[in-house]
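Dear all,

This email documents one entry for the complex benchmark we are building for the journal club exercise. For each entry we list the sequence lines for every component of the assembly. Then comes the predicted three-dimensional structure of the complex as a token string, followed by one or two observations. Please use this as the template for your own entries, and keep the labels exactly as they appear.
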Amino acid sequence: MDRIDIPERPDWREQANALGFRFHSIGGAPYWDESACYRFTLAEIENDIEGPTAELHELALDLVSRAVRDESYLRRLAIPEAFWGYIRESWLRGDPHWYGRMDLAYDGRGPAKLYELNYDTPTSLYEAAVFQWVWLEQHIASGRFPVGADQFNSLQEKLLLVLGAIAPHINGVMHFASVRGSEEDRATVQYLADLALQSGIEPRRLAVEDIGRTADGRFTDCDDRVIEVIFKLYPWEMMFADEFAVYLPACRATWFEPPWKAILSNKGALALLWELNPGHPNLLPAYFDESASAPLPPGWVRKPLCSREGANVEIVTGDGARVAEGGPYTDYPYIRQAFHALPRFAGRYALVGSWMIGDLPAGIGVREDDSLITRDTARFVPHVIV
Amino acid sequence: MKRSRTIELVLMGTAPLLVAGCGRAPPPENALLYQSLQQCVLEGKVSPEVCAQAYADAIQAQYRNAPRFDSLAECEAQFGYDQCHPVTSASGGHWFMPALAGFLVGRALSPHYPYYGWGGYDWHAYAGPGGYGGFSGQPIYRARGDRGEWQTASGDRFGRGLRGPAAPSVAETLSRGGFGRSGAARFSWGG
């Protein structure tokens, strides 16, 4: 694994706009950065990323299977008791999942370490699945990369496989909901709706804020159509805190991601994974933080159970340097995770986002930040296997 | 090969990303979705050759994927009056299948963005194209012994089962706005 500088395609911004990837720059700063790329060997991808991703996924689903049977897990994850039964039913009924992403610290040598699971509302999907793919195809076509160059990225094929599997068993209609205000969220949801359309499913877009409810506790869209199958890019822990949460257990809707993902989008899952699999080479030591107000000792990271985009994360490195991000996620308990620095390439810290579609590892996207904490402003840098 | 062999898009980059609020006009439907070859040609967004290719692809997909019935009555019972037609195959087989409801024209992204058509669709009746080859030999989901069969709200079982009603039901909405408040200050969830 290394980082190599390569020329940008001169028209990549126009291409991005034409393909609906309009958040390629955020606040004037580049989000998509193709002035460089990460180069992997096939062995690195298959042995160090793809294999461990599949294994970590199995550990994660094993954790869900245990947690739905043991209330002490759900209590420690600070999941409201009112939804324990709903989550349990969702798992036992076999509610299918679509996709998730795990963030790995990997430098091309040692075992990849699991930083976090983003199993409920992951974004950066479209740029990983499509724009990164187009980038490679065009560099192969222009001769910059050899014809045999490849990319760990079968995201679109596998996203379609899941839709192909579920399409015959749903009603021909699927709702796709995102919150108002985020271009990135809208594009992610629009992309998934696009794939649904290609799979013979009629996608109906709506805002999370516009979901309605009926007298008998079903959810409806703007045209009063009852929602039966819905993808939502809105976290379960927030749904559980919203006014309509009371209708969830009896709403009879099938959700993507399913309610049992609430267990895995919670950073407490990292502590539970370590507890169940101590010493696993791809896990970092992690514990529930019983003294969250105490100063963090060197070599530890403190994270709220529910936070996104690096918010409210605090690091004290091995030599005592403190790095912290503010944010709105102050009303949750915390975990402590052993500090394991992200690898640095050309002065940037790189994080490998490794995707699971269904139960299959499906590809990666590398994001890099100037900070040890990967934030929502981290740049997406494409990768190639040669 | 570790990457997707082809990538096609229908909505991305064509449809507006706005989500209309309830009570406001929905955004125009910009996906290239046509009921007939003539409609595609007349609209002129893509060349007649692209229309013809997409239509031919759709006919083929329809032939491969559409459910087959022994009698017209059985087919019409599921798809409605005048929605079915007889088919006789080259090998002499004879059956009834639902008519092509329309077809999509999408874009294949590699390497020069030609338009590309595929798939008969009938959203309310059966899944469209499918058969994505390549990775399709792998099971998408592993069997987990402790879990039951997924069942949709309308009673469909995941795995094999009856199809639900042809159109989703409509019910009076008493209130809206009960989701989203917790996220009001937090704009993106991706991490």
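Observations: Chain A has a mean pLDDT of 93. The two ends of chain A are 10 Å apart (CA to CA).
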